[in-house]
Design a protein that fits this description.
CATH topology: Rossmann fold
Largest sheet: 6 strands, parallel
Order of helices and strands: EHEHEHEEHE
CATH architecture: 3-Layer(aba) Sandwich
Oligomer: single chain
Number of domains: 1
Length: 131
């Protein structure tokens, strides 16, 4: 089972995406900040296959750099807020996506596709809206 850490200050989105990923056969863990994700990693020391992190969070770049150093095989997906003109790409990311309206039923399949593409190593950069 692949482990995914989802870090975003929108807890509704984090838990919604975690549930979708759990149903798709992944083990998803939520965190509301880079600080909380750091505490989670220190306490549980999980092997993270994919990090999904809001690129605008304080400490996001440092967290990504630390994860890259500790687990270089981990994939990193940066997400930005919906409607931002240009998603901010964190150094060391494998994919950059805009957060689409997560309440929309069709978004479920798109998120699972995004995760699978990133885990397979497809370099997807600056994709806004639909994949």
């Amino acid at each position: 089972m692949k482990t995914i850490l989802v870090v975003d200050n929108d807890l509704g989105f984090v838990f919604w995406l975690g549930q979708i990923l759990d149903l798709a056969g992944y083990e998803a863990y939520p965190a509301k900040s880079a600080h909380d994700a750091t505490l989670f990693m220190a306490q549980f020391r999980p092997l993270v296959n994919l990090l999904i992190i809001n690129s605008a969070l304080d400490g996001a770049a440092d967290f990504v750099a630390g994860l890259r150093q500790a687990q270089p095989e981990a994939k990193i997906m940066a997400i930005s807020g919906a409607g931002e003109s240009e998603p901010y790409e964190l150094p060391g990311t494998d994919a950059v996506y805009e957060k689409m309206d997560w309440v929309d039923q069709s978004a479920k399949n798109m998120w699972v596709e995004r995760v699978e593409r990133t885990l397979l190593g497809h370099k997807i950069e600056k994709m806004c809206g639909n994949p």
